[in-house]
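We emphasize that the prediction below concerns an isolated chain of 504 residues; any contacts that depend on oligomerization or on bound cofactors are therefore not represented. The input was used exactly as deposited, without trimming of termini.
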Amino acid sequence: MVEATSDAQVAPNMVSPMPQKTDALLTTAQLENFGLKSPEGFGKHYVLDTNVLLHEPGCLTRFQDNHLCIPADVLSELDRFKTEQTERGANARRVHRKLTEIFGPQAQVTKGVPTDGGGTIRLVIYDPSLCEKSSKELRRFHRIFPDRERVDHRILACTLLLAEHVDPPVVLVTKDLNMQLKARAVGITCEDYLNDKVAPQDSANREMVRLTLDQNELQRFASSGEIELGVERTFGLHVNQYVLLEAGEKQTIPARLASNEKLVRLVVPEVLRIPDGNHLKPLNLGQKCFIDALLNPEISLVTCFGQAGTGKTLVAMAAGLHGVFAREFNGLTVSRPVVSMGDQMGYLPGSLEEKMRPWLQPIYDALELLMSPQNPKRPKRKRNKSESEGAQQKPYDDLMNQGIIEVEALAYIRGRSIPNRFFILDEAQQLTPKEAKTVVTRMSKGSKLVLVGDPAQIDHPYVDSRSNGLVFTRQRMRGQSFAAHVSLNRGERSDLAEAGARLM
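Result of the prediction step, given as a token string:
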């Protein structure tokens, strides 16, 4: 990661040195009109690609005392997206409004306008009819990439041209991997925009921290249920982090760091009881920690990483039903983003509920498993005529008809306010950070939000294991007294499923 005087985080690629400044044939007036004259002040020159602006419009204010350069071709590309009724279209409109605000009606956009952070922002224009004649590097570039109308190539050419006329370094910031490779091929320093990405260890490390105690300390914790070890021994831990206290190989007790800096014992029932349904018993240490966080009334946000088969969704739904039947919440809402694996099946017929059924079927399966009667041989209740004529009623149908249980798509959550509900968002790794923020900000008083998913299973085309909404939320909320995180490492579905998740 490049350490610049900037809030924006970028990841560098090792490339050959940028071309040195040359004696240009362009006049001083042309240099100013094209945005090629370096503004006063120190700092790097960052050239922003379109995808960075569409990804995070707020990036325009995150480079502090550096010089932001927006190729004119980027504006043309933004113009293509501004009419879309999508998140991308909304971001394009935000960028246009922000640039209009920054430049103002009287500003000379190619000379550089000061920003609040002490840097500048300006437009840079690439005119092949004039600029190519004055630059060997541009002529070489177009021999390598002859398609001069391609926007990506024009942005790369603009970056090369800028590097010849301003003091280094000049850095292209893009999230397009193919464009990064092209830039490296012609000697352009390029970086990824990482302001919304977490550190690799934050998305990959799922091991529970171990703290070594002596025998007396562990016995004192076992009897009292809490212990204070001091800041020097708990340094690096954050509030509501789960740890394993040990005094020897076979003497271990799990604990949670409370907001008062004390390690406290987990509060986990032997089973989660669901009336007239199946009881769920935690099968491993990770599930015990997960249930402790789910049942803690002081924790309103729980994030959970877990590979396929670890029981993350089932345990969360069991805890939600437990809370609803205990009248701690008014209802249970379960949702998931609509992102498919592999090819699309095309448009689905029927009502909205019928269209969403294939996407939400795993949730219905879990509900049926949890709420099915424990004794299938017990006498069945007498069904009325309408029930007999229709489809067989599911054990959760009555609760869904009353609105106590909701299973819905995430697409319609914007604008809602969700009070006093246990809200589970399954497959949260398919969210963008902005979508995750939208969900978090919908929660009203008395609600509990549970985000579960596997950062290694990404089907969304625009996020990865370090930039998805699940890891982003966990990283930004870490250390808050109302937030907890649990990682599930042991599969419980079957030996086959566990081997598949681990070996394939």
